Amino acid sequence: MSGRLVLLHDPEGQEAWNGVFRLVVYVRAGIDKELATDPFLPSVGWSWLTDALEATGADLTALGGTVTETSSARFGEISGPSRTDDLELRASWTPLTAELGPHGEAFCQLIASYAGLPPAGVTMFEQRRSS
Questions:
Q1: CA dist 13 to 10, 18, 68, 89, 90, Å?
Q2: Is residue 3 a contact partner of residue 27, using CB atoms and an 8 Å limit?
Q3: CB-CB contact of 8 with 21 (8 Å)
């Protein structure tokens, strides 16, 4: 799994940004083969971002992006697993204020969701082993 949060700044502003700052996020995570065929997976991947931004109270405008599912098969002498499936999010938005803390918190929540961690305050039950 990997993720990046990039802050762009133009003191004169950019018309397409609707402001002087722009946040760009990139997240990529491996997924199970069974999940790779789920038609709702891209919508879920996008909702992890929008839910995190809403939960942290991040004020923003001009949110846009893509969620991409990829499958790769390796052949010949290349090392690694014979097949991998990934979910990739690329998105950007404009913060409405210079208070960027909520946006950073949203990024942390987003990374946790893509990593498969439970939301804050939720405890996972350990799997029971049959005797």
A1: 5, 7, 30, 25, 22
A2: yes
A3: yes
How far is Cα 77 from Cα 83, in angstroms, rounded to an integer? Answer: 14
- Give the model confidence (pLDDT) of 1-25 as tens digits: 999 999 999 999 999 999 999 999 9
- The type of residue at 83 is R
25 φ, ψ (degrees, to nearest 5): -125, 140
Q: DSSP assignment of 36-52, as one string?
A: HT-TTHHHHHHHHHHHH
- C-alpha dihedral, 88 to 40 to 93 to 97, nearest 10°: -120
Quick one: which of 51, 10, 45, 54 has its CA closest to 26? Answer: 45
Q: How far is it, in rounded angstroms, from Cα 113 to Cα 107?
A: 10
pLDDT in tens, 74-116: 999 888 888 899 999 999 999 999 999 999 999 999 999 999 9
Give me the pLDDT at residue 125, please.
Answer: 75
Domain boundaries, the chain: 2-115
The Cα angle at residue 16 between residues 12 and 20, in degrees rounded to 5:
30
Which CATH code fits 2-115? Answer: 3.30.1360
